[in-house]
Design brief:
Elements lengths: L2 H4 L5 E2 L7 H14 L7 H14 L2 E3 L2 E8 L6 E11 L9 E10 L6 H12 L2 H7 L5 H13 L8
Parallel strand pairs: 1-4, 3-5
Antiparallel strand pairs: 2-3, 4-5
Helix pairs in contact: 2-3
Length: 159
């Protein structure tokens, strides 16, 4: 799997308009719904919010990850929101999150999010790429950085 197969100009919200963790989650879920991947978002928001209270979303180094299974999806889907100002996720390192990744996976593949998170972490661990992503003007430019990274020697595929 290549990162650009899941995160591309169609699935990137740039800039993310949310100013809180809850608003970010709503915005990402609503975006999935606008792409006709979901018919409604209320239950998923409730599940993700309650899961977050128990496990706390993975958030550090300016990145937050949400993931859940859904009966409405047949393939692993992702939407990436990028916030220039950052959002307080109560991260253990105290940093605001600028990159919020929401992954929905089918019921029969409850661990497929791990592959996608690993790929995204490989991209974002490059400090130049990370800072460049916050300076762009559109989701098209974000997609170009992802594709350029994939075409470089620094990326890898995960089966």
């Amino acid at each position: 799997m290549k990162l650009s197969e899941k995160i591309n100009k169609k699935t990137i919200i740039y800039p993310l308009g949310a100013s809180s963790k809850e608003d970010a989650l709503h915005e990402l879920l609503d975006y999935f719904q606008s792409l006709d991947y979901l018919t409604a978002t209320t239950k998923l928001f409730s599940y993700l919010s309650s899961k977050d209270k128990i496990f706390n979303s993975v958030a550090s180094r300016g990145v937050a990850y949400h993931y859940h299974t859904s009966i409405e999806v047949n393939d692993t889907l992702a939407v990436l929101g990028i916030s220039k100002k950052g959002i307080d996720y109560n991260a253990t390192d105290g940093l605001f999150c600028h990159f919020i990744l929401l992954i929905l996976e089918p019921m029969n593949s409850p661990n497929s999010h791990r592959k996608l998170i690993n790929l995204f972490q490989e991209l974002i661990k490059n400090p130049t790429i990370k800072s460049n992503l916050l300076e762009l003007d559109s989701s098209n430019e974000v997609e170009k950085i992802i594709i350029d990274w994939e075409n470089s020697d620094n990326s890898f595929d995960i089966l």
